[in-house]
Write the structure tokens for this entry.
Amino acid sequence: MRNNNIINKLKRYVLIVEDEIINQEILKEILSKDYEILTAGNGIEALHVIETSIAPISLILLDLNMPLMDGFTLLKELKKDEKNKNIPVIVLTSDKGSELEALNLGAADFITKPYDLKEIIIARVNKSIELSEKRIIVNAEERDGLTDVYNKHIFTEYVSRIDNYRPDAIMDMVVFNITRFHLYNELYGKEAGDNVLVYVANILKDLARENDGIVARIQGDYFALYINHQDDYDALLNNIYAILKDKYNVSNVTFRLGIYRAESTKDSVDLRLERAKKVCDEIRKSNNKFFNIYSEEDQKTQLFKERLNHDFNKAIINKEFKVFYQPKVNIVGDKYVLSSTEALVRWIHPELGFISPGMFIPLFEENGNIRILDRYVWREAANQIREWKEKFNVTLPVSVNVSRVDMFDADIVNTINNIVLESGISPSDIYLEITESAYNNETDQIIGIINGLREKGFRIEIDDFGSGYSSLNTLATLSFDVLKLDMKFVKDMFKNEKTLKMVGIVSDIAKYLNVIIVAEGVETVEQLNKLKEMKYDIVQGYYFSKPVNSVEFEQFFKKEF
Amino acid sequence: MLSIDKLKEFGADTSKGLGRCVNNEALYLRLVAMVPKNDSFAKLNQAINANNLEEAFSASHSLKGILSNLELTPLLEPVLEITERLRNKENCDYSIYLDEINKKRQELEKMCE
């Protein structure tokens, strides 16, 4: 085995089964520098030691004449046991006649008494262990062709060995990825990219060696390290950047790291590697983080999210998503009157119960399912408008949310229009709330879509205004009908004088632009009165009602506020 | 007190015996000092007296292993003799060998005091 010093340096466990203490002691003296030594005085004791050893036994040195259970019987017992049958056994004997019988029973080798020179015994023990371990990996190509570090298969095999032979060591599983490496390849060419992989592999090899660990290239631009636990990954990363720059003159690559801290090794190697990679990949979404450490808590959240994603399609089919309605009340005149309502989606999961939209909406925004959910809500809302129209002979407009990802759908105008037409209502009955952050990118496309929707007769509301980064220029460029102040402002309006002033200024902007101004999150009469004083047109919030189901909502058709 | 010199005088091949103990003199002397108390001497005597040749072979065989490892030649030689005869279950007077073994064991025991 070449270059795998760390693996060769691991202290294997050797069991000496010998009833004579004197012989045990001599072998111990010879072998204890290179091996962890366990002893047993007969076959029965030996089976117990094998069973209870904290690390696997790499080799057994076996005397044949022993009380209770002799060496031959133990050898037969071992060969019968699936778990133990591959442990190599070297028989200790002073009788030529026993050697053949022992070899026939599956002994790997024999050592005669009186013992040979120390060097010969060590060499025989080494050889037998190496042969048995090599058998496990005999068919595997050990190394990655480009970088000469281990491949994934061998890496996991060696990590298991490190765990076995150093059970008390605290090790970290680290997945190491070159950020946006495909861009590097495109910019500088594949050859330059390959060079970077080799440089990185070289640095990681040194790092692994210094930290009693090993390194592998597990795929493309992903490396895996199994090293002694590190407290400071910032320092480690900076060190790598420094070497890359000073030694290889490379300064335009960055890394992200996913770390699984090995507080326990009870999770399998594959699972630890998978988790480290997963938390590494999660960094892609956040900009200022360079490493991510796996935690049990995160894992639970992650599993919960995966469950939600998994159950999504079924939930759509079974109509587990319920549309709730919150009244929007016009406060301009002396009487407060119901002006419209906002459709808000809730998920009543058959097993998990009520799931907060704060949990599932970001998730579905991330994986694109929000497009399906939005369409579901639009359709439900459109049908509801028609139902109320038939029942109360009143058209109550409903605001629905249009997510940012919907704005990248080239056919969005027709999609919404068709849903409305199919439901037998008019586009002017549906208000579209588009979150402020949707306007941050692709402005030309957004402007085109918004203009298209307005031409069809839809009313556009800018939602969560003040939470994003839209400039006054955006407000001037976009055509819209309603400005809806982010609820944070209302929540904090009496806590902070500046916030209160901002609430007033936004109202002034709306008046100046000649659009309707809406405040949401209104919970107290003081907030309501202040907003009225500041010339807000419409308010929404728990002060009037929490979001309720469509049946409960019907009370508002008959009620005054 | 047992020493390498005393063992040399006794006739042991101390350089070989020490070499087997990785030249750890303290270990070698400690192991040699364990020899006179080894159970197999008593077992060998009892088995020969009871004419149980199989038991006697097992005991002498054990002794052969440790004595050869420690190179205690004067004690090893009669043990080798008796072991081979016992292996072949020879019908002979084992007491000659036994006496020699016991004598040398006692000598060694004295050296250890």
The CA atoms of residues 459 and 485 of chain A lie 17 Å apart. Chain A touches chain B through 18 residues (CB under 8 Å). The longest helix of chain A spans residues 369-392. The domain at 150-294 of chain A is CATH 3.30.70.270 (Alpha-Beta Plaits).
